[in-house]
Structures are given as structure tokens and as C-alpha cells.
Amino acid sequence: MNFLQRKDGRDIIAGLLMIAIGSFSAIYATNHYPIGTVARMGPGMFPMAAGWLLAIIGVLIALPAFFRSGGLPHFEARPFFFVLLAAIVFGLTVERLGVVPAIFLLTGLSVLGDNKLGILGTLVLASCISAGAVLIFLVGLGIPIYPFVWPF
Amino acid sequence: MDFFDYIVIGLQAALSLSTLWYCFVGVLLGTLVGVLPGIGALATIALLLPVTFHLSPTDAVVMLAGVYYGSTYGGSTASILLNLPGTPSSAVACLDGYPMAQSGRAGVALFMTTIASFVGGSIGIIVLMLFAPAIAEVALKFGAAEYFAMMLLGLVAASTISTGAPLKGIAMVVLGVLAGIIGTDVNSGMARFSFGFSELTDGVGLVAIAMGLFGIAEVIYSVNRIKRGHIDRKSITLRSMLPTRDEMRRSWFPMGRGSVIGCFFGALPGTGGTIATFMSYALEKRIAKDPSRFGKGAIEGLMGPEASNNACDGTAFIPTLTLGIPGTVSMALMLGALMIHGITPGPQFMTEKPEIFWGLIMSFWIGNLMLLVINIPMIGIWVRLLAVPYHMLYPTVMALVCIGVFSINNSSFDVFIVALFGFIGYILRLLECSPAPLLLGYVLGPLMEENVRRALLISRGDFMVFLERPISAVFITLTLLLLVWALWVTMRRPRAATVSI
Questions:
Q1: Do A61 and B431 touch (CB under 8 A)?
Q2: pLDDT band at B183 (very low <50, low <70, confident <90, very high)
Q3: Is A8 among the domain residues?
Q4: Are A86 and A51 found together in one domain?
Q5: Chain B contact for A139, CB < 8 A?
Q6: How many domains does chain A have?
Q7: Do A106 and B399 touch (CB under 8 A)?
Q8: Which of A30, B112, B197, B324 is the least buried, fewest Cβ under 10 Å from its Cβ?
Q9: How confident is the model at residue B325 (pLDDT cuts 50, 70, 90)?
């Protein structure tokens, strides 16, 4: 980490990430899909070309970054964790419990991202969002979503 | 049929009751999200995409377009009152708008930016109406080689000009192209990069990607950044909005010049409102008799840029509707909305579906008139809205994103994809990789693959096909020039590629 902070760590990580994604895609495509010829391309040709291209650009991004200073960006761990967790928990619960309980869980978790809203405020907010969502999606647009699902 | 017949067809479509309603909903929502910092037009258009499945194609694009240009109207409100841009392209409005507000001229600034928006918007629509048919005519002669070359140019331009480091922009485009490959290959029927998930054989949904990159990632990024300032609400009355004669006189020419700049940059691929506003501001400052007034509340520095980014909104539709090639991400989403309804915009679009094409354009006039009403008498509501704290707004945004995405297929899988792209989007943002070119690459990638395969099939594998045809050769040359410039910029000074005033 010390090295990444002294050099332009941001671009080094970006470049390495591109190299990893690019070469993985290219190798995966080469091994799993027919490449074909230039005149009659198989399904593997285009992803292979795009993958290697990305890897080359990754090298061009990372290399110069080793020779200059820059440092690392500030990572906001708290909102990052809670906001993503809120979305995942929503996905895990929405089919089993219904939209309204899933919204309450989502709201409760995502407010922890900056922790400025109290428990009462969160409950009021979640109720408002639930009512709004049911009104807009179910009543207004007629999209079949289930407000509650009884698992028993 | 001549020009005026088409206009009549367009007006008939745009004036139907349902289209008027969705136009109103669009511009109202657009103003709302434009006013609020931390929620952009992009995330909103993405949020509304699932809703448009249930509308007619005309209503769908009219509403989405309304969000797009409505947000440009609203964007300057937060810039003027809080020194915090509501949208990226209204960042310039902070420079002279906020000083105006501090010297008690907030009402005038808000009123005059709405006028500038209307003037700029109108000029943009006129240019769109005059030029779109001519460009479509030329594009009718394009074959697979020209299309591929043009998309290449569009993508390279979009990724190198507008974002920070050009190389990272190109990397994002290629990453987007790879994301677009996920799903079933049209030519062979083979599922690519699906890693055994049956849900992935249809590809990753546009809505999920857009909401992840621009909704969730934006929320994570903004949570600890957006602070609410104090606004003196009572000072903004209708009476306080009346400009003096001198302010009126000084505004006309900057509005005209700004509109011309906006029309130009709007139509170019990759550039857009943000660049146009910077250019317009720089121009006004350069030709002003007393440049030292700029930054201290010079109305010229507010009017020029504000007219320019609204003019952009009109002409940005030219490449999207006539060539089927979006220059910006919002346009890519608009294109996606049309494709969902089975319509692929291109040179034939305006003659085959005149009611959609001209209906959309005519709805711009109606939408702009509505925005005039929404922004001037109702300004008090928007000002009050700015007082809603972000810690109550972002859980609402999160809920809307998750329900919206879930409602498309009633599938949790899509929610996980959104979370995944929120994760990716935030990491990319930290690494100063702009997610906008990624989405463009995702939308254009499959079209590019199709055209390059077709072009090389016809030429029996000879790459010279892209250089032998004159139009394609011009596009390829321009692309190469841009790439050389991008490399030169990167190697010389890594962080100097931002626009400076």
C-alpha cells in the first residue's frame, strides 16, 4: 500500500484491473468459442479481439503511472457497504416476503450509510416509500408486484 | 410528402391527450431531478425505462426526452442558490449565478436562466428540424463498412474528448463492448460469457447496467459529499424576478452566441452540454469589455452557457435519430427505449415512422413551453425542494431503483446485477474512470460486431474495405487522429486533459 500511495496508485490499479479483465475475457473466449476466420468470424473472434485490446490499453494506463506520483483515492467504506448490502437484501427478500417488507429492510440498511436518520424517521420514510411504490407501480402502472407474500 | 405535411403529422401525434400527459410528466420529473443535486437525468431515464415498456413508443420517447431537456432547465437552480450544480452541465452556472444570488439578485438569475433555456432550446429544435432530414438522406447510402467506421469514430470521440484521461475513456468503451457481448450471439446462437446462468443468455439488461452505474454508484459517491446550504426562501418572489432594462440588453447577444455554440457541440458525438457551457463562458469572458466582472455576478456569463446547454439538447438528437448512433449516454438510453419497442432509429426512421419522429420533435416545442410555466411561476416549489436533506432522498432513490429493476421480469437476479454494477461503478469512479463511455460501448458494441462481421464477410476478409470506401476512410482517418492525440496527451501530461477556463 505504501508503494501505491507514493506512486500514482489510482492509475496502477486501474491499469492492472483492465489487464486482468481483458486477458481473462480473451483467454476465456479463445478456449470456449470457435474463433473462425476474419472473413467468417466465429462467436469467439470479437470478444477475443476486444479482450486483448483492453489488456493492451491497461498496460498503457499502468506503465506510466509507475513513474509518477499520485496516490490513492479516498474509499468511503460505510456508504459503500450499507448501500450495496441494502440492494442485495432487497433482492434476497422481495420474492419471499413481498415488496413492502423488502422496502423496510432496504430503507433500514441504506440509512446506515450515513446514519443521520433516527429509527422513527426511518420507519416513517420506509412507510412513505412503500405507500408510494405500491401506488405508482401497482395502482398507477398496473405492474403486478406483490406488496406482501405470506410464507406460511 | 413535404416538410409541412410531416410537421402536421408530428403535431397531431404530439397533441394527442396521452402524449401531452407523458410530455408533462417527463418535463416535470426532469425539472425535479435537475434541481436536486445527486440525482441526475441519466438515473431517472434509466428508472423510467421499465415504465416505458407499458407505453406506446411515441409516449415513451416523448417522456424520456422530456426528462432529458427538463433536467437542463432545472440544473441551474441549485447552481445559483447553493453553488452546487444540479447537473454536470450546469457547473458553469455557479460561476456567476451564485455571486448574483449573494448580491440579492437570485430571482433575476432564476428568471433569466429560464428565458435563456427557452431561447437556446428553441434554436436547438429549429436546427434539429432543418438538418435531420438532410443528414438522413446522406446516411441512406451507408453500408456496413461506413456504419462500423462511424460507430468507431463516435465511440472514440465520446471517450477521448469529454472525460478526464482519454486512455481510460477508451478502456471504458472496450469494457462496455465486452459487457455487451454477454448473451446469445446472433450469428451462431451460442451463449457467450453466460457462465452457466440461464438468466444471462438474454444478456445483461440495459436498465440494470444504467441504474447500477448511474443510480447506485452515484448514491454511494454522494452520501457523504452533499451538504445542504441555507437558502433565503422568502427573497425569491415573482416581483424579485424582474430583470432591469440593462440586464435584458446585456443578455440577448450572449444567448444567441451560446445557442450557436450549443447547436454545434450538441450534434458532435462525444461532446455535449458540459463542454458547450465551458466554451460559451470562455467566449463571453474573452469578448467582454470588462472581463473582471466575470465571476462576480456578470449576467452574460450566466446567459451564454445556459442557452448553450439547452441548444445542445435539441441537436444531440440529430445523430441518434438520423444515424442510430447516440453521442451521449442519455441518447444511448433513448435509443434503448426505442429498441425495446422494436424500432431501430436510422436513416429510414423519419420516413417509415413519421408519427414517432416528428411527434417527438413537435413535443419538444410543447415541452419547452410547459417548462417555461413550470419554472417561472412554480419556482418557489423547486426552491423549497432543495431544502429536503439528502439522507432522506437517497434511500428513496435506492428503493425506486430496486423496485424498478425487479418489476421488469419479477426477478431477483436483476436486482443482484444492479448491485454488481453499482459496485463496479463506484470502484471505477474512485479510479477516475468515467462510466459514461462504458454504457455507450455496451449499447454500440453489438451493433459494431454485427457490422464489422458483415463488412468483412462481403469483402472476403479484406480489411481494406474500410479504407477503399471514401466516407468510411474519412471516419477511420478522423478516429486515428483522435487516437494519436489521445496518446500524445496521455504521455505528455497525464492529468492535463480537463477543460480549463
A1: no
A2: confident
A3: yes
A4: no
A5: no
A6: 2
A7: yes
A8: B197
A9: confident
Residue A72: inside a domain: no
User: Domain residues for A6?
Assistant: 2-65
* Contact by Cβ (8 Å): B131, B457: no
Could you give the CA distance from residue B182 to residue B188 in angstroms, rounded to a whole number?
A: 14
- Rounded CA-CA distance A16/A8 in Å is 12
CA nearest neighbour of A87 among B464, B394, B236, B490: B394
Using CA atoms, how far apart are residues A6 and B437, in angstroms rounded to an integer? 29
The per-residue pLDDT for range B251-281, each reduced to its tens digit, is 889 999 999 999 988 887 767 777 888 888 8
pLDDT-derived band at B1, boundaries 50, 70, 90? low
B398, containing H or E segment: helix B390-409
Q: Is the CB of residue A54 less than 8 Å away from at least one CB of chain B?
A: yes
Same domain, A12 and A44: yes
Rounded CA-CA distance A125/B168 in Å is 39
Considering CB atoms only, which of A76, A92, A102 is closest to B224? A76
Between B230 and B110, the more confident residue is B110
Q: How large is the ipTM?
A: 0.91
Does one domain contain both A52 and A91?
no
Q: Does residue A90 fall inside a structural domain?
A: yes
| A58 shares contact with chain B (CB less than 8 Å) | yes
The answer, yes or no, to whether residue B383 has pLDDT greater than 50, is yes
Q: Does A106 touch chain B (CB under 8 A)?
A: yes
Continuous segment of H or E residues that includes residue B14: helix B3-14
Class of residue A80 by CB neighbours under 10 A (exposed 0-12, middle 13-18, buried 19+): buried
On whether the CB atoms of residues B117 and B68 are closer than 8 A, the answer is no
A39 & A83 share domain: no
Mutate to test the interface with B, among A16, A52, A53, A61 (most CBs of B within 10 A): A61
Backbone angles phi, psi at A34, to 5 degrees: -65, 135
- Select from A65, A92, A117 the last residue of a domain: A65
A53 and A82 fall within a common domain: no
- Is residue A149 domain-resident? no
Taking the CA of residue B3 as centre, how many other CA atoms within 13 Å lie in the half-sphere pointing to its CB? 7
